[in-house]
Design goal:
This protein has 385 residues and is an alpha/beta fold. The protein has 16 helices and 12 strands. The strands form 3 sheets. The protein has a 7-stranded mixed β-sheet, with helices on both faces. A 3-stranded antiparallel β-sheet has the order 9-10-12. A two-stranded parallel sheet has the order 1-11. β5, α10 and β6 form a beta-alpha-beta unit. α14 runs parallel beside α16. The N terminus is likely disordered.
Amino acid sequence: MLLSRRSFVTALGLTGAGVAAAPLVGARGHEALAAALRRGDPAPPELVLAGRVVRLSSNENPRGPCAVAMEAIRGAIGDGSRYPVAPHDELRKAVAESLGVGEDHILLGCGSGEILRLAVDAFTGPTRPLVTAAPTFEAPADRAAVLGAPVRAVRVRDDLRLDLAAMAAQANGAGLVFVCNPNNPTGAVHPAAAIADHVRRVLATSPRTTVLVDEAYHEYVEDPAYATAIPLALASPRVVVSRTFSKVYGLAGLRVGYAVARPETIEAMARHRLDNPVNALGAAAARAALADRALPARERQLNREAREFITRFFESAGYRVARSETNFVMAHVRRDAKRFQEACAKRGVLVGRPFPPLDTHARVSVGTMDEMRAAADVFRQVLRA
């Protein structure tokens, strides 16, 4: 049985002030809120008022933590007064065992966001640029800008896939090449052979460059040509794979992620990490969720059904939707993405922020079927206006 956010709040006994704080646990809308804060804007009111809107803006799992993760959270609350040394070690061991690698190949982080930041800190700098895509997940480029590292952004192709050839051509002298596969926000995925060839080309051109493959949406992919890049990371100290428990496992608010790489690469990144990157509740929930071997397939099916529904809606209305292997779709709405976002928000549905240079595309996260039906009604109104 999967528990909703409301069930989560009830199960933890949150009332009064606890309920007011619950949005921070659920973290629905976190991505959009973080983007606003980076710009120096105030938090949009609709992101603060939990439960008032349909939140399809941050690629979260609408079903939240699974039942065994919830039970683990309840059991770990009593350890909340202790620093999470043991839970951290236990989770690292569990992740390593699930992947069939040594524990020294795993680095835990406060969500994969910290993992991306550690890679940028470790491998880029004022004379070591970051190569990334446009658009893709912005966190590495944002961090590189803080460090004064040049950013070489390569526009995605017309089919919304990463332009791997152009990215490889920009890699000479770079400190880090960021490859989001499947890519956020376009949803496009590259087959294993293409990623392996890309890594070979980058390292042949620039042997001191590190390639970071972000696999945040790995568990959702059904394309038979796709495979994880972890074997590449085990074979070369210049390859890192990042993963997260935020998506298919529904733990976005608990912030648990990890990197897979060679021990020497893990050591280089670990010099920049927080002392206690994973909290006790997050570690307990992630271990329990990882043990639920049926969870990824269950979530893939539910996600597929809702994603296909919203894809059919847009296509039947005459709007093109890029093929997605994730828990979101990128729809070409043929109008200003910011205005589309604002019009939907006024009607109670939040969609993704604009992603330049795709200024007429809207990213829509996949929610429950009820949420997608409600969203489709709103999209119909907005698109007719």
